[in-house]
Each structure stands twice: as structure tokens, then as C-alpha cells.
Amino acid sequence: MICRQGDPGDGFFMIKSGKVRVYRVNEGMQTDLAILGPGNSFGEMALLTGAPRSANVMAVEPVELMSLSKEQFDTILKTYPVVALALVKQMASWLIESDRMIEREHSRRYKAPRLSVFDFVVLIFLSGLFALIFNHSNPNGIPLFPKISLSSDIHRITIEAALLEQKNGTTCFVDAMPSDVYDREHIAGAVNIPLSMFDIMYMIGLSDMNKSRKIIVYGRTISRLYDIAMANKLYLRGHKNIAVLEGGLSLWKNKGYPLAP
After folding, report:
1. What is the CA 152 to chain-centroid distance, rounded?
2. How many other CB atoms are found less than 10 A from the CB of residue 105?
3. How is domain 155-260 classified at the architecture level of CATH?
4. Alpha carbon distance 63, 42 (integer Å)
5. Band of pLDDT at residue 102, cut at 50, 70 and 90
6. Averaging pLDDT over each range in 61-75, 182-196, 241-255, which range is the top one?
7. pTM to 2 decimals?
């Protein structure tokens, strides 16, 4: 058990790897609130409100956490108001989702199920099929893959040129993937700034960096362009010498270039 419901809030936690279960106990009944994974955080509600912890948090698999004490947490909020705003928004979404979970649990207990598993699968399949047909036939359809444009002041860099920059040792490589992916494999010497925790991780890892220092960003999947989103965020923070790595980690690995761990 990492945190117990009713305990005083004395720390803020960010998940680097693994998963935790967040649940609440009322009158002997357990209500699941969330399963959190790498890039998610918990503990901010008690620190922001001063109230005891409102839920239990337990690991459901081996988990690695990064923690901040109440003093460190308060210092960050005072120094960087944008982080306070981000945490308030996150806390609000938590409260909304918590209410929804409780309503769903109440409905589940007092209403008989209306659909069989087979009916549910068929509905999902048909919904997906109609969505694909709509997107294919309608020019105003919903895009299946993200379209994120790169700032005109940010350029792309080839794998070969990036390798020379790494050997030179003056360029900062930023891995924008979630922490569990970074922990499995990353470019040697790269720092991890997960996109989902950008505001906090930026302050910890890059806020003191010289804004003129070159940064090479990488990390994407078929559906998430972490590298482009990260490069744009860094540009807005005042970094002007930014490049996005062409081919990303997969091409770097295929070339046999240095990896860690």
C-alpha cells in the first residue's frame, strides 16, 4: 500500500514505471477510481486542499515512483504558477471522473445488465466499421491519425548528423516518450521529459539550461507524435535551437548507434 485513505497528505508522486490502483472505501464497499500508469501522478489533491488523503493507492505490479515532499511541492507552485494551474485542472478532472465512477457503480448494483458481451462486441465492431466508412467517403471526416504541425523555426535532423552531435557532447537529447518506454531503451545520454508531465519534468530537468543550447527531440508512435508536440512546447519556453530526429529511436537502433541502458 502506497497511500491510505484518511492519512495526512505529505507527498506528491509521479509514476515512472508500473501501475497503481486508486480506490475508495465507504461503509465497507470498495469503489475503483482509476488505474494509473507511467506519466500519471497522485497525491496533489491532499497537498492542495490540506485535507486527508481521499483514496487508497496500491501497486498492482512493480512500480517506480518519483516523489516530492510537501515543502518541495509548495516551492514549485510558488515559483511556477503554470504548474499550479495544470494541477488544479487535473484535480478537477479527477473529481469529475470520481463522481462518474461512483454513479456507474451505483447503477451497476441496482440495475440488471441489458446487453450481453456478444451484443456489446457487435455494437463496437459496427460502430468502428461505420466510422471508417464515413471517414473514407467524407472529406470532413474525423482524422484517424494526429495532424500536428511543427513550428517553422524548428528543423529536422538526419540520424547521421545527430550522431555527430552526440559525439560532440554539447547537444541535449530529449526523449519525449512515457517513462516506462524510456527505461526499457533510449538514446545514450538522453534525458526523459514525458509529454504528459511536461510542466513538472521540464522544471526539474531543463529549466536551468541555456536557451541557446541545441536540443534534439525524438519519440513517437503511429498514433502519437510526442516529438513534434514536445519540440513545440520547448520552443514556447524560449528554446530556439531545436531539431526533431528523423526516423526516431527505431532508425537510430537499426543503425547500431549508442543506446542505453
Report:
1. 26
2. 16
3. 3-Layer(aba) Sandwich (3.40)
4. 13
5. low
6. 241-255
7. 0.56
User: Where are the domains positioned within the chain?
Assistant: 11-110, 155-260
* Residue pair 63/18 in contact by the 8 Å Cβ criterion: yes
Q: Which residues contact 211 (CB under 8 A, 6 or more apart)?
A: 238, 239, 240
More confidently predicted of 114 and 246: 246
C-alpha–C-alpha distance, residues 150 and 244, integer Å: 9
How confident is the model over 24-52, as a mean pLDDT? 84
Fold entry, domain 11-110:
Jelly Rolls (2.60.120)
**Model confidence at 204, in pLDDT bands (50, 70, 90)?**
confident
Instruction: Give Cα separations from 129 to 85, 118, 137, 222, 237 (angstroms).
Output: 40, 16, 12, 20, 42
List, in order, residues 6 or more apart from 254 with CB less than 8 Å away: none
Angle at 175 between CA 89 and CA 248, to 5 degrees: 125
* List of residues 6+ apart from 161 with CB closer than 8 A: none
Helices (H), 111-209: 117-137, 159-168, 179-184, 198-205
Q: Is the pLDDT of residue 55 over 80?
A: yes
